[in-house]
Design brief:
This protein has helices spanning 9-29, 36-45, 64-73, 80-90, 103-114, 125-156, 159-170, 175-179, 184-199, 203-214, 224-239, 243-246, 252-285, 298-307, 329-338, 351-374, 376-380, 408-424, 430-435, 440-452, 470-485, 491-497, 504-525. It has 531 residues and is mainly α. It has a domain at 348-388 and 400-456 and 490-526. GO terms for molecular function: alpha-1,6-mannosyltransferase activity; GPI mannosyltransferase activity. Pfam families: Mannosyl_trans2. This is GPI mannosyltransferase 2. The chain crosses the membrane at residues 129-149, 161-182, 256-277, 354-372, 407-427, 509-530.
Length: 531
């Protein structure tokens, strides 16, 4: 890894770029000021979609400041954001609200009550919640970019690729969901931070962050696999040491007991928020005498009647999931309200949504195939084989970058999420699902840019000696110089400024990231089905 003396110039430039990207996203979605022209144009070309989405009535009359804030940040409250804001304001009133985990709405409510307390005379609670969500997600997305950079430095052992990947995260195809009142930014920050601490060997701190992540999104449970794999790998490598070192290790049964106990305890801790949330739902809906309909405002009761939303244990009627052997409300809601299940989305009318998700499916599949072909033995042995020479990273591949051995578990994680998303989920959410859960999309995109774009090649590489690329070589050497001196110019900005000189691979990657960033703003903020 390239040494960095003093304060990390890469991190400083990354934070600046992340803040600029978040500010630009908020500006473009606003219905006030210069971006209003674009919003008006988008509304003409793509009118607001008449969606049967969750839209609870506003119980308090909005003031002037509330209306102004709605014009500024109203685009961030579409679709699932309505659920999070409603939960933050009213709690879990309806059954299908339990599809959304509590950590993010609790954080939004806490920030609205504490940090934005001075604004309570100017803004209603709902407006303060929206402002709180926008501020929190801006903070979480910047911190997530920093955590991804630190994780990349630890796992890839290549600061340049880690930096470029973190820059790509700032213009992620899921950027609009990182800014809106969704839980993606918070989850990405917690997940990437937990992975980084695990790479540093800080297991308990990593476990705590993974546990918090599972209180944000259900797929946080899958992250327990990182800790389990880490412990199993250490155990397998210990079994392969030489006779001299083996005598210094504890007995085999003690090592096995330590492995089993640590994995069970850590996985139980990571799963604890999910279990407690399901128990809370069971208490609300299945326990006798816990119906809270008496304290629910009449407009919300009327909404339940009009839309068929189920309230908690009204008139002693319990939902069907209460009588299941394992009464888990989350899986029931996904199946009953959103028709989520294996191959249920494979319908002819869903072809446009599959086309919408096609780029991220291709990118994720390409990443998995590239890693598999570069490290076949490492993949077949699940990375549990001790290498004769730790400096020699197998199959003639370097020990740094995307194809290094440490990336194996991340590739497996991303592939599992990809397959589950394609076959068991609403496939149009796959972009934000993967974009906030795995670093592989950004690492592999940065790897492709570093491999195929001469503007990013260091001075002295063989590829730059080709005469046909002389103009690119001059720019590439200049950019390489900026890496050595600090960060004189953002490499992603440099690529965009010299877009006509980019290779086809670079144009495809940048085109995908930026077009989906803008497309997400257009469709999501115009209430079009892009969730």
């Amino acid at each position: 890894m390239e040494p960095v003396k003093g304060r990390d110039p890469y991190l400083r430039e990354l934070l600046r770029f992340a803040l600029c990207c978040r500010a630009l996203t908020l500006l473009l979605q606003a219905n006030l000021g210069p971006p209003f022209f674009f919003q008006a144009l988008f509304n003409l070309l793509i009118p607001d979609h008449a969606a049967d989405a969750f839209s609870p009535p506003r119980l308090a009359e909005p003031g002037v400041c509330d209306l102004l804030l709605e014009r500024l940040l109203g685009g961030l409250s579409r679709w699932d954001a309505e659920h999070f804001l409603f939960i933050a304001e009213r709690g879990y009133v309806y059954e299908h609200n339990f599809a959304f985990f509590p950590a993010f709405p609790l954080s939004v409510r806490a920030a609205a009550e504490v940090i934005l307390w001075p604004l309570q005379r100017l803004l209603r609670l709902r407006s303060r919640l929206l402002l709180s969500a926008a501020l929190l997600n801006s903070l979480f997305s910047v911190l997530a970019a920093a955590a991804l950079y630190k994780l990349g430095c630890a796992a890839l052992r290549c600061r340049r690729v880690a930096f470029l990947a973190a820059l790509l995260f700032c213009v992620s195809p899921a950027s609009v969901f990182m800014a809106a009142a969704y839980s993606e930014s918070m989850f990405a920050f917690l997940a990437f931070s937990a992975m980084w601490h695990l790479e540093k060997g800080q297991s308990w701190r990593s476990g705590l962050l993974f546990s918090l992540a599972s209180a944000v999104r259900a797929n946080g449970l899958v992250n327990a696999g990182f800790f389990a794999y880490s412990r199993c790998k250490c155990f397998a490598l210990q079994l392969q040491v030489g006779p001299g070192l083996a005598r210094k290790l504890p007995p085999f049964w003690r090592q096995l007991l330590s492995l089993a106990s640590s994995v069970i305890l850590m996985c139980a801790g990571i799963s604890l928020p999910f279990v407690l949330f399901q128990c809370y739902a069971h208490t609300r809906f299945c326990a006798p005498g816990t119906g809270l309909s008496q304290g629910i405002p009449k407009p919300l009761l009327q909404l339940a009647l009009d839309k068929g939303y189920r309230l908690a244990a009204v008139d002693g009627l319990k939902p069907p999931w209460c009588s299941q052997r394992f009464p888990v409300i989350y899986s029931y809601i996904q199946e009953a309200y959103w028709n989520v299940g294996f191959l249920r989305y494979f319908e002819l009318r869903q072809v446009p949504n599959f086309l919408l998700a096609l780029p991220v499916v291709l990118l994720g599949s390409w990443a998995a195939w590239t890693y598999l072909t570069a490290n076949p033995r490492h993949c077949l042995t699940l990375g549990l084989e001790r290498r004769k020479n730790e400096e020699e990273q197998g199959e003639g591949k370097p020990g740094t970058g995307f194809c290094c051995p440490a990336v194996f578990v991340y590739v497996v994680h991303a592939t599992v999420l990809l397959l589950f998303g394609v076959f068991c989920m609403h496939v149009q959410v796959l972009t934000r699902f993967l974009g906030s859960s795995t670093p592989i999309l950004y690492w592999f995109s940065a790897h492709l840019l570093q491999e195929h774009e001469p503007l990013l090649w260091s001075e002295g590489t063989n590829k730059e000696t080709r005469a046909s690329l002389s103009e690119k070589s001059v720019l590439g050497n200049s950019l390489a110089g900026s890496y050595e001196k600090g960060i004189s110019e953002n490499p992603l900005v440099r690529l965009l400024r010299n877009y006509r000189l980019n290779t086809p691979v670079t144009k495809c990657i940048l085109g995908y990231f930026l077009s989906y960033w803008l497309l997400g703003l257009i469709l999501h903020c115009n209430f079009f089905p892009w969730t």
